[in-house]
Amino acid sequence: xxxxxxxxxxxxxxxxxxxxxxxxxxxxxxxxxxxxxxxxxxxxxxxxxxxxxxxxxxxxxxxxxxxxxxxxxxxxxxxxxxxxxxxxxxxxxxxxxxxxxxxxxxxxxxxxxxxxxxxxxxxxxxxxxxxxxxxxxxxxxxxxxxxxxxxxxxxxxxxxxxxxxxxxxxxxxxxxxxxxxxxxxxxxxxxxxxxxxxxxxxxxxxxxxxxxxxxxxxxxxxxxxxxxxxxxxxxxxxxxxxxxxxxxxxxxxxxxxxxxxxxxxxxxxxxxxxxxxxxxxxxxxxxxxxxxxxxxxxxxxxxxxxxxxxxxxxxxxxxxxxxxxxxxxxxxxxxxxxxxxxxxxxxxxxxxxxxxxxxxxxx
Length: 363
Ligand SMILES: [Zn+2]
Known about the structure:
The structure is a single chain. By secondary structure, the chain is of the alpha+beta class. The protein is 22% helix and 12% strand. The structure holds zinc ion. The site of zinc ion has 7 residues, from β8.
């Protein structure tokens, strides 16, 4: 999920709701809370919490412990934008990305360029995504890995290929290949993967061209942005009692009415208030599950390398106590009332504010 979300609700409604809920969360009664913006605290973490792996909260409102880093390079992948330090995830997520890279290579995709996964301890980010907070989301470029290794400088500067015409919202046919389809099909084939977010134009291309087994299209969900990368989301993993699952996707291929909505004018109306604060700008520690404080406070491993995933057993560099047992529900009611059914690509919008539109995702 990117922050390029446009809400069909009026911005005034959103702001009013965000303010009201922030007050409810005790923000107004605690002047010091402004110093505890969750994105500042989680954005400053350089290493994971060295405990057993656990996702806490929801994709757009949570954190995780026991994260591991995907190595910067593998035989079939390269990590992009390494300076962001967002190559961390739940070990199951990292293992799955590596597996996808191998399977995709066997299918004829040269290798994965890996975009953002999560910060070392998850949580909201200073820039970009609304989700990616619990180590179970990953962005993968729709540009294949080039034939020769990318330098670290190239990984910072190389542009991704925009696959979709911004005026028509249709895929650029000169760029789309059967290998793109196969890559998405392979990603959707894993039982752990619950949804894959793509630009509506990409969803339409698949709807129009996939023959034979179309059952996997159910997992491919249209969303704003996602025109140079796709977003792979896996479900809550064992050992994460406080991980809040998302709604299951409808059983059909999603090629009917919900997709048609994206090709109306409504989803693309310009944002009337582009400078309105985003959810991540408002979130304090009080808005996150209580256990996320323990995640922040937990000791880290000795080094990045000690928490880098090399297959097999998950490294736990430091024996540290588990984050506290739950005493409060990880999240409360979602705020999706009034959103069209197609917004269900990303259920349970954080109640402190619906992510607001941006012209272009920040990665
Ligand atoms: Zn994403």
